Amino acid sequence: MQRVCFLLKVKRERLADYKAAHQNVWPEMLDALRAAGWRNYSLFLRDDGLLVGYFETNDLQQARARMAATDVNARWQATMAPYFEALDGRRPDEGAEMLTSIFHLA
Amino acid sequence: MQRVCFLLKVKRERLADYKAAHQNVWPEMLDALRAAGWRNYSLFLRDDGLLVGYFETNDLQQARARMAATDVNARWQATMAPYFEALDGRRPDEGAEMLTSIFHLA
């Protein structure tokens, strides 16, 4: 099992909207994540917009590829893109910065 | 159950040492964390030293208070303090910046 942590930066002026959107994530998007093997997935936000994502999956490469292959993900990422800084034209799921795991205690 | 995410900043010149220390965390420290109710605890590092911690616990206030009451934690935090930036005299476990959970998918 892989534990994954990634970072993105939400624009300060869009923080409230971004939080509100995540109280009502589309059910199809949640279904697609589950079907693609994303488990125990959380998002955390710092006041300045730094966003931390954490999830668990059996195979990160496969989990990302499966999501990338869905229509609902393309629509969700297009809807979310304007909320983020510094994507340089990438989709949020492509622009996320992956961190390195250095410690785990079960 | 609470899912907790916190940030700290490791000094760039101490990154290799910090990683090495976390491949050999003292067994008493691991035991103390378990006894204090810290579960599924991971640390992730960005190349510039940004450190992300994630763990799960039934009661965050109690989990922190229980660790703070142990001798081994005082020794561990004192050993780790020189690795971090911007603690302003606080112990790392006191200086960690807590983030807000905005989304969860089981």
Descriptive report:
2 copies of one chain form a homodimer. Chain A is an alpha+beta fold and about 110 residues long. The first copy, chain A, has a single domain (about 1-100), classed as Alpha-Beta Plaits (2-Layer Sandwich). Chain A is built from 5 helices and 5 strands, in the order βααββαααββ. The mean pLDDT of chain A is about 95. The interface between A and B is medium-sized, with 33 and 33 residues.
Can I get a quick summary?
With 106 residues, chain A is of the alpha+beta class. Chain A contains five helices and five strands; from the N terminus they run βααββαααββ.
Keywords:
homodimer, 106 residues, Alpha-Beta Plaits, globular
Number of strands of chain A: 5
Largest interface between protein chains, with number of residues from each side: A-B, 33 and 33 residues
CATH class of chain A: Alpha Beta
Shape of chain A: globular
Q: What is the topology?
A:
Two copies of one chain form a homodimer.
Chain A: E1 2-9, H1 15-21, H2 27-35, E2 39-45, E3 50-57, H3 60-68, H4 71-80, H5 92-95, E4 97-98, E5 100-105
Antiparallel strand pairs in A: 1-3, 1-4, 2-3
